[in-house]
Amino acid sequence: MSFSMDNGYNLWLNYSKIDDASLLETYRNQLQTVFVTDGGATMDVIKRELDRGLGGLLQQEVRFEPNPTFQNQLIVSRYAELGEDLRTLVDPADLTSEGYFIRTIENKKHRMVLITAQTDIGLLYGTFHFLRILQMHQALDGLQVMESPKVDIRMLNHWDNLDRTVERGYAGFSIWNWHTLPDYIDQRYIDYARANASIGINGTALTNVNANGLVLTPHYLEKVKALADVFRPYGLKVYLTARFSAPIEIGGLKTADPLDADVIQWWKDKTKEIYDLIPDFGGFLVKANSEGQPGPQNYGRTHLDGANLLADALKPHEGVVIWRAFVYSEHDDTDRAKQAYSEFVPDDGKYRDNVLIQVKNGPIDFQPREPFHPMFGAMPKTPLMMEFQITKEYLGFATHLVYLPKLFEEVLRSDTYQKGKGSTVAKVVDGSLNHKKVTGMAGVANIGTDANWTGHPFGQADWYGFGRLAWDPYLDSGTIAEEWLRCTFTNNENFVGPVKKMMLESREAVVNYMNPLGLHHMFDTGHHYGPGPWVDNLSRPEWNPVYYHKADDEGIGFDRTKTGSDALSQYAPELGEKFGNLETCPEEYLLWFHHLPWDYQLKNGRTLWDGLGIKYQQGVDQVGDMIKTWEDMKPFVDEYRHNQVSMLLGIQLKEAKWWRDACMLYFQTYSKMDFPKEMEKPENTLEHYKSLQFPFAPGIRPTWN
Amino acid sequence: MSFSMDNGYNLWLNYSKIDDASLLETYRNQLQTVFVTDGGATMDVIKRELDRGLGGLLQQEVRFEPNPTFQNQLIVSRYAELGEDLRTLVDPADLTSEGYFIRTIENKKHRMVLITAQTDIGLLYGTFHFLRILQMHQALDGLQVMESPKVDIRMLNHWDNLDRTVERGYAGFSIWNWHTLPDYIDQRYIDYARANASIGINGTALTNVNANGLVLTPHYLEKVKALADVFRPYGLKVYLTARFSAPIEIGGLKTADPLDADVIQWWKDKTKEIYDLIPDFGGFLVKANSEGQPGPQNYGRTHLDGANLLADALKPHEGVVIWRAFVYSEHDDTDRAKQAYSEFVPDDGKYRDNVLIQVKNGPIDFQPREPFHPMFGAMPKTPLMMEFQITKEYLGFATHLVYLPKLFEEVLRSDTYQKGKGSTVAKVVDGSLNHKKVTGMAGVANIGTDANWTGHPFGQADWYGFGRLAWDPYLDSGTIAEEWLRCTFTNNENFVGPVKKMMLESREAVVNYMNPLGLHHMFDTGHHYGPGPWVDNLSRPEWNPVYYHKADDEGIGFDRTKTGSDALSQYAPELGEKFGNLETCPEEYLLWFHHLPWDYQLKNGRTLWDGLGIKYQQGVDQVGDMIKTWEDMKPFVDEYRHNQVSMLLGIQLKEAKWWRDACMLYFQTYSKMDFPKEMEKPENTLEHYKSLQFPFAPGIRPTWN
């Protein structure tokens, strides 16, 4: 029918019919029947997914056999239950508890595809991988896959409040309907777990790090338990954010001092109460003494004291504490970029072994581009967990097409030099650099109640890509984009090629039209929607954009070398030299580390001022190119999603121009120079841009917090 | 596939294949081709709807012909464009501008179904009616339908805030995504307009009556215009709530005094600005001097002054003012039930002719049961618009199955006796009692971002039923239920019969388990979730449940006869006698009008105390019966929706018991009598029920308002 349309709810699990007739015939022939080992909720999930996946892809009833026939069959079976002859074909020693083998076996006795693993969850992951192979139209002949995740804790952080608003959420509201839980199980909870399992995500922190203690009361724990019960068969563990002052607010104690005996006991009891309800509860995620949140420092204690308090409570239950390093203080007038390092690094080695320190990818705050956080590699005795932001607080909300795995990849591949060349951030995160016992990667979710989960259809790629990189931090962002495109839209090469290119270039586009040449945090106050480089009236200096760009009559940029804040000294000496030297500092970090005159000469011979204008224009032009590319894709995409993306690209172009015009007009009040000839004339006056107000922009922190 | 499921997004416009093979054959034969008159956006909408509707129902490609063949054809044509021979078959004088004819014509020249109307909107309404006939599997032979709406303004009131929270919204958040408007047009906007047009709703007030002036600024008006442009082809006009103090807040004036010349000019200019953008803008909906909202009384003026101020501004553009009568004052210590009447009735006849006074169905506030509002029939010279609440603020949020058209019907059929027997509320509302020039009915929407729009699948029936009753206030609620069931689920009589019965009984069930025998407003504070009959500590007396039930050691109930507040005197003398006399007062209004001793003897011989407990128990038992009925419906409903409703009925039963136990335990502290033997033992103590707190219950008014 002409009205059929894809609202995107199914994400990359589209399972649409294989449109290559000969391939379809081959698959149908190779997968005539299915045998799945019996037993347990996860095995039921596998069966349902195969019924749905194979049913959709092959457009025929899926025939499940009660016994293996080994002939033109898909077999999903635990390793321990395989016959001796099949066991010899796979080596379980290579598998972690979440890993799996997929092999096509053709010999005298067998003509089959085998998925095997040590655990049911491994089988589920293998099943999703197998379905992806079909979705990507890859041949099954000679198939041999061995996969184990390289990172232990692969989790989403939901900044979801109990009133269902989502801090920095741009895809509607929280999918957790606390009011109707525990008795009403929304189908979304199940599909959320499916989607996560399909990319190997195994943990979810349900609540905002700006936490509310109420979630730890029995009334809410009953609701959390209901979600945990839904998620369990999918290998997805639940974590909660622990408000440090909860012993006072919900426990009735007079203090939350981490060394107080009653406080220690309260957390022990509370933790036990949680595990009695949720035996596989993951642990606590904590934001303490940061942006107004309570913490151990309220009692003259340290982050170490706070983290170890909760670690001791969790230890008997095998839970972990994930303690965020995102701290900066209004009482500390050193460069905000330096403060987390100074606070945490000295205590390396003193944390309990079930504590992970969760560090944002860069030293400021999820900017379009930052150098990697100097803590990575600087705490060899402590597990450092990566915190990426999947929701686009500073990258165009859910209206801009910006493919984030490209950003994640850049961070993961950055070399810390902490153990010589090749000491990449990925090696810190996966623990291989310092042989960590437990490792993790977190992504701040971009998921909401919008029909397609993420608002922008391409936002789904960021969720997908985060999961894939958490599983394997060495994956290539281009490969991931291609997987996602094929599973979500079509395998048509005339679509996959151009759109993949567009995605890979989109991240540099947003850097160009928002924060080029190392500029950062020039976002308007509070909601971070649109440019506000002129903002200078907030109570804390480091909340003002002027703190970061430091534009003045002489020039622009933040001097973080020895002549400035010396934040650079927190990096390995090799990087200190590279970034500190104007000859070798990459232009993308130029104004991050240096304050330079407006007429400073860039590598291309143009002045810094001209270079700035040219970059802004380039960003706008890149969005124009994206619009052209997408227009050409009309034949390959359903009308619904094509139209969605077209409208959103229109907004992106409008806002890219807004950024260019607002920033360049503002900086011109200092540079007093003409715009470079390459740059289009601004569409409005500086006064106009300064007058814009958005009191109801989405994602603002609610007043009660 | 086993995973196929209906998430309810398509509402009653399901258009699923006609499953009766012979009927399908007949339809296919009778509707071989379609001819639709050319021209204009509404005609395009009609074509698209027929393509979708007939395509789905008949499961075949719809063949549109460029010219009428009159043979086995559906013809949708303006009356003016019909040939003389067809014109003689219909009489246009009987049609209002929104009315339509549908006729099956079989004669020598013709063998066709004709839909005709004076206007394109009439054709659209006729098209939807025709599709409903097919959805209900009705024969086309001899079909002869002539329909015109009995009420002019048939509108939804959205209590939606600019931050997308919805006051008294229980189906997620506002479907208006103000942030991405005007450039991003969500498919929901289009489907919202379709759904409304399908039941004849022709107006929508987008914003909360607790209004924010910002919606009248250019930044937001541009967004409103985008919605109006989407809605226009569907005959749906946009209205806005006007904050009375907007001239100060967004206009920069020092006053909002309705007699001030600058204020008068400001509203004239603002109104013109709106009409320049939206030429068919409907008008303003105003809540003034009510529950903290600003209004003319702030300046020593009257509601009359305020309403006429806006009416004069709207008059040149043919817009209307809808002024709400929901007012009660903290400075007025008379019975709250009396205040609106006292405030408005004396000014009957003084309002401009483009003012409608919008009156809630009852004198208090959308309770499970109230007698009709005494203003109906008491202002013969002023159009009184009905305000129903479709969202279930006081009827179980979106978790209880309560079929509201049953309540609406009860109100509309109530006899005001204002012009003798038979002066029903319906006749006041449709204007026939006093020959009104303009008439209207509003429903406070239950629509939100939930996949199925209304949260509870059966909440869709309330939206549907409201629309149908606004079109024709004399329709029977059972007929409406049946229409909705057939279009939404199935025509299987084994389903339609029992479920219709369940729906019709559901309203009395909620009265029984919440507020039996005329009790009212015993809801917990603020959020109105669950029972709070004990609440007595709010600053204004009429905000406390104890104000309404007046339980004491002697008895219970609000004496509104001459010996009490005398609110009864606001009704016609016939009703004063009937309700005032204990012999003739219907038991459902007993404690609304009378304070009676605990041992007062009811008609069945039991004491009032026993009767109360028996009613509460009966409500609980009725929910138990609904659960049984629904369980039996499993064969007829898709798993998704069957499971949804089952879970929700589980919550309803739990909460029905909660109401029974909390209220009866509380009242027992006064009656000091044993529970009647028919009543189950309470599950918890009164202290437990009093201790329950729900700070994040949905639908609370945000703090900024």
TrEMBL record, chains A, B:
The active site is at 291 (proton donor), 365 (proton acceptor), 393 (proton acceptor). It catalyses: Hydrolysis of (1->2)-alpha-D-(4-O-methyl)glucuronosyl links in the main chain of hardwood xylans. The keyword Hydrolase applies. Signal peptide: none annotated. GO terms for molecular function: alpha-glucuronidase activity; xylan alpha-1,2-glucuronosidase activity. Keywords: Carbohydrate metabolism, Glycosidase, Hydrolase, Polysaccharide degradation, Xylan degradation. Residues 11-130 form the Alpha glucuronidase N-terminal domain. GO terms for cellular component: extracellular region. InterPro entries: A-glucoronidase_C_sf, GH, Glyco_hydro_67_aGlcAse, Glyco_hydro_67_aGlcAse_N, Glyco_hydro_67_C, Glyco_hydro_67_cat, Hex-like_dom2. SUPFAM superfamilies: (Trans)glycosidases, beta-N-acetylhexosaminidase-like domain. It is an enzyme of class 3 (hydrolase). Its EC number is 3.2.1.131. One of its GO terms (biological process) is xylan catabolic process. Belongs to the glycosyl hydrolase 67 family. Homodimer. PANTHER family: ALPHA-GLUCURONIDASE A. This is Xylan alpha-1,2-glucuronidase. It comes from Flagellimonas hadalis.
